[in-house]
Amino acid sequence: xxxxxxxxxxxxxxxxxxxxxxxxxxxxxxxxxxxxxxxxxxxxxxxxxxxxxxxxxxxxxxxxxxxxxxxxxxxxxxxxxxxxxxxxxxxxxxxxxxxxxxxxxxxxxxxxxxxxxxxxxxxxxxxxxxxxxxxxxxxxxxxxxxxxxxxxxxxxxxxxxxxxxxxxxxxxxxxxxxxxxxxxxxxxxxxxxxxxxxxxxxxxxxxxxxxxxxxxxxxxxxxxxxxxxxxxxxxxxxxxxxxxxxxxxxxxxxxxxxxxxxxxxxxxxxxxxxxxxxxxxxxxxxxxxxxxxxxxxxxxxxxxxxxxxxxxxxxxxxxxxxxxxxxxxxxxxxxxxxxxxxxxxxxxxxxxxxxxxxxxxxxxxxxxxxxxxxxxxxxxxxxxxxxxx
Length: 389
Hints:
Elements: H1 2-33, H2 36-45, H3 49-58, H4 60-75, H5 80-101, H6 105-131, E1 140-143, H7 147-152, E2 158-161, H8 162-168, H9 190-194, H10 227-230, H11 237-247, E3 250-251, H12 271-276, E4 280-281, E5 298-302, E6 310-313, H13 314-318, H14 323-326, H15 342-345, E7 383-386
Parallel strand pairs: 5-7
Antiparallel strand pairs: 1-2, 3-4, 5-6
Helix pairs in contact: 2-3, 4-5, 5-6
């Protein structure tokens, strides 16, 4: 019996040794599959100084070439954040090269100069953003993509009242054939408008004022006349009613609470309050044969978190937007095929594509707008989607 036990322990020891050897080999193979840059970034992220030191010392022959390639890759990046990330990786790599291999200090100064330029550009960009911040409320946005050209022409940026167009029209009138539902993704230009495209589809002097002949109507960002679009107390509610009548939409300003457009706690338009009070009914699509399918079902989301369930109403959404706006690019068709989480919404993904603060839908962080159904309370006919946070 003692011999059997001894053999068992011996075999167990051999098995454990083999398992450890396989694990170590696997880790080496995984590391071997990563490029020098990938390993360097991972070590840097994990603050793994020992592994980073070994990596740099073993790769003396390639490290200067890697630094040069990092700089090249950084400067072809369109996104400033990515560019800064790559430059900072190059800077760290250059410092380690100088320490372990007597690398070129001039390369570090070159990288620091590039970083300082990028930081300056980021600060300037942030300053421009803040300049128009007070006007980008209610659901407005200032169109700054061609700012230099507009300044040359003596024009202010366009202050586009997205909220006002939503009052007059269903979202599917413009999205997605005319405009992609993503800010700054449409390259709007005067040339396109003059040809009767983009804004020129409606702003042609017939259906709405001519965008080609009355530039001052739109280029009002930073001007006193723009106040009627971002200050709830200065809005001309009667003018909205007159325009609504001509477009086939409805605006019942007499139903407004306190005779002023309601705002939520973040100072954005409370669209649900407007709908509940029957203040507005937007016009249907103008284009014939447009995809105007309305889905009439509900999906109950049952999160693991200690919050009420959320009830998604397909009808209220599909009556405003086309199915193709969300499916399949944003959400897969099959029930349970999507991760719907608050963290993704904060990145303007999933529901956050529309439900982001400052847009034309209430912000995702106003939790009680969606999480209305008590735990354990059934909703007749609703499809069930479990485990979302």
